[in-house]
TrEMBL record:
<keyword id="KW-0238">DNA-binding</keyword>
<feature type="domain" description="HTH tetR-type">
    <location>
        <begin position="17"/>
        <end position="77"/>
    </location>
</feature>
<protein>
    <submittedName>
        <fullName>TetR/AcrR family transcriptional regulator</fullName>
    </submittedName>
</protein>
<dbReference type="InterPro" id="IPR001647">
    <property type="entry name" value="HTH_TetR"/>
</dbReference>
<dbReference type="GO" id="GO:0003677">
    <property type="term" value="F:DNA binding"/>
</dbReference>
<dbReference type="InterPro" id="IPR009057">
    <property type="entry name" value="Homeodomain-like_sf"/>
</dbReference>
<feature type="DNA-binding region" description="H-T-H motif">
    <location>
        <begin position="40"/>
        <end position="59"/>
    </location>
</feature>
């Protein structure tokens, strides 16, 4: 039994794990379409065609379920970016450009939900800190993989962190501005900074 909820957990069972994945996929699709604003176990249960008690059998709490949903949506974003980068030349500048196009053009629902997740983490960190805390850990390895492999790990981490923080700001600008011209102008400046970083290796 789970001490917090009084419900059993579906741990260790292949059948339970498969059911958990099925539920998570269905609920993630619902959140991607309808957002996070009124998310609850009961809404998730309706979307999955089950009951909130069944969800508590497979997930620790509403917060745990929401965290898993957001993790899955970030994986979708990362997968889209990696697919966009796959055909690009092996320069960091070109990879960042391709990743930005993927982020800029991704479905508005996905961007909206992931922005809502960060907003919840800032608005109520006591309850939703995990929604924000895991974002960098998910995104940074991908951005570090865009960097030349011969760079020291610290340098790849620093450059990837700069790119991540800057792209986050541009995504917010796209969400809140009328035409996105500021984000596009800023992105060109970011590309110049990345190109200068790459040029250090040829001096």
């Amino acid at each position: 039994m789970d001490n917090a909820t009084g419900y059993r957990r579906s741990t260790g069972s292949p059948r339970g794990a498969a059911r958990r994945r099925e539920l998570l996929t269905t609920i993630t699709d619902d959140v991607a379409e309808n957002g996070l604003v009124d998310f609850s176990l009961r809404r998730a249960a309706r979307a999955a065609g089950t009951t909130h008690k069944v969800l508590l059998y497979h997930f620790e709490s509403a917060e745990d379920l929401l965290r898993q949903v957001v993790l899955g949506l970030r994986e979708r974003r990362i997968g889209n970016a990696l697919a966009a980068v796959a055909s690009e030349p092996a320069t960091l500048t070109d990879r960042v450009r391709a990743a930005w196009v993927s982020l800029r053009d991704e479905e508005s629902e996905l961007r909206r939900v992931l922005d809502q997740a960060m907003g919840l983490a800032m608005y109520d960190p006591g309850r939703y800190a995990a929604l924000g805390r895991g974002a960098s850990q998910q995104y940074l390895p991908t951005l570090m993989s865009f960097c030349p492999p011969e760079w020291p790990e610290r340098r790849r981490f620093e450059v990837a962190s700069m790119i991540l923080a800057t792209l986050r700001g541009f995504l917010v600008d796209l969400l809140t501005s009328d035409d996105g011209s500021g984000a596009e102008a800023g992105f060109e400046a970011l590309l110049r900074a990345v190109a200068r970083e790459e040029a250090l290796d040829t001096m």
